[in-house]
Amino acid sequence: MNRAKQVIHWGIEANQGLTGNGVGVAVLDTGIYPHIDFGQRIAAFYDVIRKRREPYDDNGHGTHISAIIGGSGEASDGRYCGVAPGCHIISVKVLDSKGGGYASDVLMGLRWIREHKEMLGIRVVNISVGSYSRRNMSENSALVRGVDAAWDDGLVVVVAAGNNGPGRMTVTTPGISRKVITVGCSDDDKEVNVMGTKMVDYSGRGPTGACVCKPEILAPGASIISCCNELCRYSVKSGTSMSTPIVAGAIALLLEKYPTMSNRDVKLRLRERAVDLGLPRNRQGWGLLDVERLLADEVL
Question: How many CB atoms lie within 10 A of CB 201?
Fold first, then answer.
């Protein structure tokens, strides 16, 4: 089994029986549909856009992301199981039905997460959202300050590198933050359809405008099957948005095994256990995520 498939097709041997139980993962996205694969593990839902109380997803992107992290695979007899099927999901809707939104809404969602992290057991924040406007490409931008504040509060913040590659300085904000864990796509050599556009070699590359190497790590993102916003159904999506929750789910497993780890400990562990692909640093970061290697007590 090659390294990329090992990340997707995890099993008891690869994840040591860990499921992410007791670990809360917050997802800032388009919301979440109460798919059967989530069971009773949608711990909270906060709607910045329409202020609705019951979980919903009028786009489907957020549901797809959330199930990559923590779907049980029940509707597919376990075939399309998430990385950490025992974790609980905190869904924060910051994007509208078209997948668009405002930095102010993302910041409001981040503030809500920080305020409720203790009560809801939130340890990880997944942000498969990014901006590539010149206004937001500075480390002093509001989005970067927002994710940095969440990181400083002890949360492990995992952010997509964006789909604007393969040129230099194409990582989206807030992935340019030097504190967060920015995730690129390991298999973007495969042509995929992203929102109706055929793309290849799209994963965002560093350095940032402040000459920080990015991304930190890679994970698969091409043609990932996960839950959609329909009863018991699945869909296929591609991009660094899909790579990011694979890493977030793996971190949930790691925090179940080592609950006292800090976010800095997690970042160091990812760096130490990544598989070097021999690619330029601003393409691969530390290398490819390997879940089994990440969780192993010792790596020879």
Answer: 14
